[in-house]
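A quick aside before the break. I want you to see a complete sequence-to-structure record at least once, exactly as it would be stored in a machine-readable document. Don't worry about memorizing anything.
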Amino acid sequence: MSPPLPDLTIYRYDQAQLEAQFEAFAKAAECSGADKLKCLRELDSESVQEANLITVHPAEYGTFIYGPAIDNSLIIDLPGVLLQKGKFHRNIEIIVGHNRSLH
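That is the input. The structure line, written in tokens, reads:
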């Protein structure tokens, strides 16, 4: 039998912080005005990567600058909460992610 899951509901969620992160990213990408999201969507990948480096670089090692934003549509709750409630796909055998070395 698997051990019980730890309390995953303690992970941070701060809407004001998410908004500030979005504004900082838009500024780093030189997107301003009424429709920053439209501007960001039109950027090439190199510009998005540069804005990401500008906003992520000051973060303390081992911390996460970005996290999920609950929109009650695509993201209905924090991932840890959904995991605790058993609301995840159980028929996925492997999930793979890739990160590019920044050094």
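Two observations worth writing down. Residues 74 and 81 are 15 Å apart (CA to CA). The mean pLDDT is 83. We'll return to this after the break.
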